[in-house]
Each structure stands twice: as C-alpha cells, then as structure tokens.
Specification:
It is built from ten helices and eleven strands. Strands 4, 5, 6, 7 and 11 form a five-stranded mixed beta sheet that branches. It has 267 residues and is of the alpha/beta class.
Length: 267
C-alpha cells in the first residue's frame, strides 16, 4: 500500500498514517512531490480547485514513487483520514464524522486505517439524499455548475446521457468520492485521470464565474468531483458486489484537531 497525505500545511494527522506528502500552496515547496512539480496548471489553479488540485495529481505522484498495478492507495489530508469505526474517546459531530485530539489519534491502531479482511476499499459510509444528488446540490451549492459539469462529462465521453440521469437521481453519496479513503490503484488511477481532465475543462470554460464565488462556493470543482467520484465509486462497488455491497467496506471520518474544535473547510 502507498499512503499519501494531500496537504497545504504541516499535517495534524500522525506521520505514521502516511508515507509521502503531496504538498500544496506554499507548504514544503522544495519537495519533489509539491504540486508545482507535478502540474504547473493545478498549482496555479489551487486557489479555486483547493484540495482537488492535489487529488487530481495523485497519478503523477504515483509515477514518481511507483506502486504495483494491483497495489492499494490510501489518501488522507491535512486533518482527516478514513478509519474503520468510531473511537470511544472521540466527539461525533456529524453522522460520519468524529473529532479527536492528536494524542488520541496517535493511540489509534494503524490496523484501524486499513481495509478489513480481504477488502480492497475502505471509504466513508454513504449518506442518503432523499431527493437525489441534483436536489441536494441545488440546495447546498449552485445548480448551474452541476449542469455544466455533467454536460462537459458527456462531451468528453466520461458519462453518457443515461449515466447523467442515474447520477442526478442517485440517493447515496460517499464523502470524499475518489479522493479520500483506500482504493485499488487499478481503479483509482484511471478514475482520477478522468476527473482531472473534466475538472481542467470545466475551469478553462467556467473558471471566471467560479472565481467570483464566496470562500465556500469557490470550491465548486471539488464539490463536483466529490459527487461524480462517489457515483463512479458506487458503480464499481455494485459491479464487484452484485448481491449487495458489504458494510465492511465502509468506515467513518476521523478529524484530528489541536483545539477540540471543528469547522467546515474554506478556501
């Protein structure tokens, strides 16, 4: 397994949770894996793409580090990782999110971050959106972005019209999509390459509009990639487990805090 931490600051998660950092912004600019060394485009777009600028370039980092085609990739970030289950001394702040101190994080067995048994995935337990992805996105973000994004996905051959209909109606959402959790490399790399190509095309065409959004909505390309990544992930899991996706593939988000607080990330 290759364990990657995509981060813009010195990580709050324990260093034992990752092998290599993919630094963003002004953090650790001398690293061979800094975003500016992997993609000048996404380094420049990081103030709009946010963490997805790093996620999109995980395939480039893997080219430099190397990993067997049948290997696993774990993706964490500055303060978060997917673990198997809630910890007794953590504070649950959302259905799938807990907050714990750095000391408590250090005490977690590393086995808790690995997929169970013979599973090749460990991702966040799905949320349920009664009205589907399109309804939730319209309430939380700007629907025009989702419509434009999916139109480009069809143009690029990433989705077909039937896929778009299924995507809009999908009631299940895995937080982090294809950019947060543990995945087999042979699925993750082509999936991230598709999301990178779509994200680049979307920002090339609609970037001027996105840059006018507030410090939360400006992360639109990340919100979009998270939802499409979740949809593609669910398609893969349903194909692999036609009799039903085992619950053992799903975990929760461990958020490490140095002050016990929790806040939604902003650009």
């Amino acid at each position: 397994m290759l364990r990657i931490c995509v981060t813009h600051l010195q990580p709050l998660i324990p260093t034992s949770w990752f092998d290599v950092e993919l630094p963003l912004g002004s953090y650790f600019e001398d690293s061979d894996f800094h975003i500016s060394r992997l993609s000048k485009y996404w380094h420049a777009m990081r103030p709009v793409a946010y963490g997805s600028a790093g996620g999109y370039n995980i395939p480039e980092l893997i080219k430099k580090v190397g990993i067997p085609d049948d290997g696993l990739i774990r993706i964490t970030n500055y303060r978060k990782a997917v673990i198997r289950s809630m910890c007794p001394d953590a504070v649950q702040v959302e259905a799938n999110v807990m907050v714990l101190s750095q000391g408590s994080a250090e005490a977690i067995s590393l086995r808790m971050l690995d997929p169970r048994q013979d599973n090749r995935f460990l991702v966040v337990r799905p949320l349920i959106f009664d009205g589907g992805i399109v309804d939730q996105y319209a309430r939380a973000h700007k629907l025009i972005d989702l419509v434009n994004y999916c139109s480009l996905a069809v143009d690029l051959g990433i989705l077909n019209e039937k896929d778009v209909d299924s995507f809009f109606k999908c009631r299940y959402f895995i937080q982090g999509g294809a950019e947060f959790g543990t995945y087999p490399a042979d699925w993750l790399i082509p999936t991230l390459n598709c999301l990178e190509r779509l994200g680049r095309t979307f920002l090339d065409q609609y970037g001027p509009r996105i840059k006018e959004y507030d410090s939360y909505q400006v992360r639109a390309v990340g919100f979009l990639a998270e939802r499409l990544g979740s949809f593609l992930l669910l398609k893969r899991l349903k194909r692999s487990y036609p009799q039903g996706i085992p619950g053992s593939l799903f975990g929760v988000i461990a958020t490490v805090s140095n002050d016990g607080g929790y806040a939604v990330g902003r650009a």
